[in-house]
C-alpha cells in the first residue's frame, strides 16, 4: 500500500519538476554548459541505467494506474526531456516479462509488459536485455520480453528468440547515420542456457564481442555501440576486469578504424566513472535508473542504488567517407530515483528549483569524473 509519505514526496517531486521546467524555458539555446548538437552533420545519443522493477516499484505503478494494471509513464517523466530530445536513446532492461503480465520480485524477477509501453512513450529506441536475470523464466521469459518490446516499438539487443534473430544486428537510424547496438552480460546468475539454444543470451567474450562489432560494421553500421553488463556490485570504481576489457575492446581496429565507438556499462547498482580509453568513450557504470530500496554487501540500505547518470554523446560525421564518426561532445546528467514518490528526478533541475539535493548531485559528479574524464572534455549537462 502506498503510504501518505509517498504522496507527500510525490507532490514535492511534481513541484520540483514543474519549477525546473519553467527555469529551463527561461534559459537560452546558447547556454555555455549545454550547447545543442550540430544537426546537419551529426546526431546525439543518450543512454541510461538499469530499469529494475522491484516489488515496491510495481506497487507504485499499480497505484499510478488506479489499482488496475500498471502505469509506468509517470516514473519516467523526469527523464523524458533528456531521452526524447536525442536522435538515439538506449536503456537497459534488467528483468524479463511474465506471461499475461504475471510479475514476481527478487530473486526471480518477472515484470509486466506495461514497462515496455512506458519505455517507448519516454522515447527509448532500443534496450539491452542481456543480464543475470535474462533466464529467470527460461526461454519463455525472453520470448515474452521481446514480444512486449516489439509490440511497443522498442528495439532490443542481447537476447534472442531464434538463432536467426541472434545473428541479426540491431541497427538504428540516427539522423544521417546508422548505429549498431550490441549487448552482452557477464553471467546469467547460474541459470543454464535453454537446451539447444546457446544463442539465447549473449555472454561477454572478448573475441565474440569484437567479431560481432566487425560484422555490424560490415553490415553498414557507421557507429557501433556495445552495452556490457559487467563489474562488481556496490563498487564505485571499475574493477580490474572492466578496465582490462575496456582497453582491449577499444584498442581493436580494422584498417585503422576502431571496431567499437562507444562502451556503455551497467550492473554495479551505483554510478561509476566515464573515461576515454584509446580514443573511445567508456561509461563503466550508469547506475540504476529505476529500482527499489536495496541493501549493499554489508546488509545496509544504500541510497547509491537509486542514483544514476544519463550519458549524452554528440557524434559528428567524418570529413571523408569511411572515416570514423567522432564524439565531438560528451556530457552527462545526474539523476535520482525518488523511491517514496516513485519518480525519476533530474538533480540539476531539482537543485535549481531549491531542492536539497546538492550532496547527491555532487557525489555522482565526483564519481563520474574520478578517472580524469574532464581532461578529455566531459561536462555535466543541464
A few lines on this structure:
The protein is built from 11 helices and 19 strands. A hairpin with a 2-residue loop joins strand 7 and strand 8.
Overall description:
This protein is globular. It has helices spanning 4-26, 55-64, 73-76, 80-84, 114-122, 138-152, 163-166, 206-218, 240-251, 347-352, 358-368; strands spanning 42-51, 88-93, 96-97, 110-111, 126-128, 155-157, 170-174, 177-185, 223-229, 253-254, 257-258, 262-266, 274-277, 280-283, 288-290, 307-316, 326-338, 343-346, 379-380. The chain is α/β, with parallel strands linked by helices and 382 residues long. Residues 3-8 and 14-40 have low confidence and may be disordered. The strands form four sheets. Strands 1, 2, 5, 6, 15, 16, 17, 18 and 19 form a nine-stranded mixed sheet that branches. The protein has a six-stranded mixed sheet with strand order 7-8-9-12-14-13. The protein has a two-stranded parallel sheet with strand order 3-4. Helix 5 runs parallel beside helix 6 (138-152). The chain has one domain. Residues 1-23 form the signal peptide. Keywords: Lipoprotein, Signal.
Largest sheet: 9 strands, mixed
Round the mean pLDDT to the nearest integer and report it: 90
Q: What is the C-alpha radius of gyration, as a whole number of Å? A: 20 Å
Helix/strand-derived category reads alpha/beta
Distance between the termini: 35 Å
Number of strands: 19
Residues in helix, %: 25-40%
Order of helices and strands: HEHHHEEEHEHEHEEHEHEEEEEEEEEHHE
Uncertain ranges: 3-8, 14-40
Shape: globular
- Counting copies of identical and different chains, the oligomeric state is single chain
The structural domain count equals: 1
Determine the number of helices (DSSP H or I, runs of at least 4 residues): 11
| Percentage of residues in DSSP E strands | 25-35%
Signal peptide: 1-23
Keywords: Lipoprotein, Signal
Pfam families: PGA_cap
InterPro entries: Capsule_synth_CapA, CW_Biosynth-Accessory, Metallo-depent_PP-like
Amino acid at each position: 500500500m502506498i503510504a501518505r509519505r509517498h504522496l507527500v514526496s510525490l507532490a514535492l517531486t511534481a513541484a520540483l519538476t514543474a519549477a525546473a521546467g519553467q527555469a529551463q524555458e527561461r534559459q537560452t539555446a546558447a547556454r555555455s554548459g549545454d550547447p545543442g548538437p550540430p544537426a546537419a552533420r551529426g546526431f546525439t545519443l543518450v543512454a541510461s541505467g538499469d530499469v529494475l522493477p522491484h516489488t515496491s516499484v510495481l506497487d507504485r505503478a499499480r497505484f499510478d494506474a488506479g489499482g488496475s494494471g500498471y502505469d509506468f509513464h509517470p516514473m519516467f517523466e523526469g527523464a523524458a526531456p533528456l531521452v526524447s530530445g536525442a536522435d538515439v536513446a538506449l536503456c537497459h532492461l534488467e528483468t524479463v516479462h511474465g506471461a499475461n503480465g504475471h510479475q514476481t520480485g527478487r530473486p526471480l524477477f518477472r515484470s509486466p509488459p506495461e514497462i515496455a509501453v512506458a519505455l517507448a512513450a519516454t522515447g527509448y529506441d532500443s534496450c539491452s536485455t542481456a543480464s543475470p536475470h535474462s533466464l529467470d523464466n527460461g526461454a519463455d521469459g525472453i520470448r515474452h520480453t521481446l514480444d512486449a518490446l516489439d509490440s511497443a516499438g522498442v528495439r532490443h539487443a542481447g537476447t534472442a528468440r531464434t538463432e536467426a534473430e541472434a545473428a541479426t544486428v540491431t541497427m538504428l537510424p540516427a539522423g544521417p547515420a546508422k548505429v549498431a547496438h550490441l549487448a552482452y552480460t557477464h553471467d546469467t546468475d547460474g541459470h543454464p542456457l535453454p537446451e539447444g539454444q546457446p544463442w539465447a543470451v549473449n555472454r561477454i567474450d572478448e573475441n565474440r564481442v569484437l567479431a560481432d562489432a566487425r560484422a555490424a560494421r560490415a553490415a553498414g553500421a557507421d557507429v557501433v555501440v556495445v552495452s556490457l553488463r559487467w563489474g562488481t556490485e556496490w563498487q564505485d570504481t571499475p574493477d580490474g576486469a572492466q578496465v582490462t576489457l575496456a582497453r582491449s575492446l577499444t584498442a581493436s581496429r580494422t584498417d585503422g578504424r576502431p571496431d567499437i565507438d562507444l562502451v556503455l556499462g551497467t550492473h554495479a547498482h551505483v554510478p561509476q566513472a566515464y573515461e576515454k580509453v584509446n580514443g573511445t568513450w567508456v561509461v563503466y557504470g550508469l547506475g540504476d535508473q529505476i529500482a527499489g530500496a536495496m541493501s549493499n554487501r554489508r546488509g545496509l540500505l544504500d541510497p547509491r542504488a537509486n542514483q544514476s547518470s544519463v550519458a549524452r554523446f554528440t557524434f559528428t560525421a567524418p570529413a571523408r567517407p569511411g572515416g570514423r564518426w567522432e564524439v565531438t561532445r560528451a556530457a552527462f546528467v545526474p539523476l535520482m530515483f525518488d523511491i517514496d514518490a516513485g519518480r525519476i528526478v533530474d538533480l540539476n533541475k531539482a537543485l535549481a528549483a531549491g531542492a536539497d539535493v546538492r550532496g547527491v548531485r555532487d557525489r555522482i559528479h565526483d564519481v563520474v569524473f574520478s578517472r580524469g574524464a574532464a581532461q578529455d572534455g566531459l561536462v555535466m549537462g543541464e
